[in-house]
Automatic annotation (TrEMBL):
<comment type="similarity">
    <text>Belongs to the short-chain dehydrogenases/reductases (SDR) family.</text>
</comment>
<dbReference type="InterPro" id="IPR020904">
    <property type="entry name" value="Sc_DH/Rdtase_CS"/>
</dbReference>
<dbReference type="InterPro" id="IPR002347">
    <property type="entry name" value="SDR_fam"/>
</dbReference>
<dbReference type="Pfam" id="PF00106">
    <property type="entry name" value="adh_short"/>
</dbReference>
<dbReference type="GO" id="GO:0016491">
    <property type="term" value="F:oxidoreductase activity"/>
</dbReference>
<protein>
    <submittedName>
        <fullName>SDR family NAD(P)-dependent oxidoreductase</fullName>
        <ecNumber>1.-.-.-</ecNumber>
    </submittedName>
</protein>
<dbReference type="InterPro" id="IPR036291">
    <property type="entry name" value="NAD(P)-bd_dom_sf"/>
</dbReference>
<keyword id="KW-0560">Oxidoreductase</keyword>
Amino acid sequence: MTNTALITGASRGLGLALARSLSGAGWELVLTARGADELEKAAAELGATAIAGDVADPAHRARLARAAPELDLLVNNASDLGTTPLPPLADYPLDTFAALLATNVTAPLALTQETLPALRRRRGAVVNITSDAATGAYEGWGGYGATKAALDQLSNVLAAEEPDVAVWWVDPGEMNTRMLADAVGAAEAAEATDPAAVATALHDLIRSRPASGRVSLQ
């Protein structure tokens, strides 16, 4: 039986690296991201299904769930960073924070709700990509970190409520991605870990299926 994964934020960075790793192991993939051109390129490379759109859009989430009626793995990887340069909480734009909550917290929960029936049938797994900003007091990272802390707790409770579905909230550590470059600059980001190496560790986690919980990959 072929395994199927749905990965958000799959056009670059960790999402794309994980898609490549799973594809190499024979997984069928449904990939989504907002950038249609990059996503179509990735899907063509991997023989995957590409559905471009915004995970914060309920209609888009419904399309994703319909595209994967039999699902073994949901990877909620898509995230927004928010305003850059990263502002202190005293000056954090509240409209930006509301948008971050919609993308980083509400969307993963809503997509999980959409796909849980399929995941339950296959005794599948949910991977929610979190961050050490969820637990550390890093100046400027309050808005983003608060959304990841909320995602951590949603994952924690989901794991308790869904014993037949594995739930891992995964801190991948600093990676050389466009998001990190936007936050700290390209030079510093270039010194971070290659997303491909993190994807290998994440694939190993998925394959070994440990108990649900928070996992740090670096």
